[in-house]
Amino acid sequence: MTAAQPCRVFVVEDEFLVALQIEDDLIAAGYLVVGPFTSLSTSIAASRAETFDVATLDLNLRGELVYPLVDELLERQVPVLLLTGYAGSDLPERFRCLPRLTKPFDGSELISKIRTMVPAV
To answer: Sorted alphabetically, which keywords does the UniProt record give (predicted)?
Structure first.
């Protein structure tokens, strides 16, 4: 990522209105949005095919937990922001240290968190 290439944010969110708001907030802040993706299978496939700098992941996609995707992204050293209604203590221990926003959150919280993770934008 350079000044000529804005940060690309991979978005996984199954709630249409939430995904739309995340996308709008990111675009307004100067980010490029990859997604949003709404299921685990499409998210995993897209994560392997797309290029991005950071990922925002809703942990529960209509009852399907995205833990396999989180593990894969962490193995690839992609910064991951978890978006969830779960308390930190409800997460697997290996994910408790990851940045997290508790739903509901507002756009300024999202942008602030991403800027701490990928400060180049």
So the answer is: Phosphoprotein
Detail the DSSP E strand segments found in the chain.
8-12, 32-37, 54-58, 60-61, 64-65, 80-84, 100-102
CA distances from 42 to 1, 23, 85, 114 (A): 25, 18, 22, 23
- pTM of the predicted model, to two decimals? 0.92
**How does pLDDT run across 27-55, given as a tens digit for each residue?**
999 999 999 999 999 999 999 999 999 99
Roughly how many angstroms between the first and final C-alpha of the chain, as a whole number? Answer: 9
Segment 64-87 shows an average pLDDT of 94
Pick the CATH number of 8-105 from 3.40.630.30, 3.40.50.300, 3.40.50.2300, 3.30.310.50: 3.40.50.2300
List the one residue out of 24, 96, 12, 90 whose CA is nearest residue 56: 12
Classify each residue of 27-52 as buried b or exposed e, where b means 16 or more C-beta atoms within 10 Å of its C-beta. eebebebbbbbbebeebbebbeeeeb
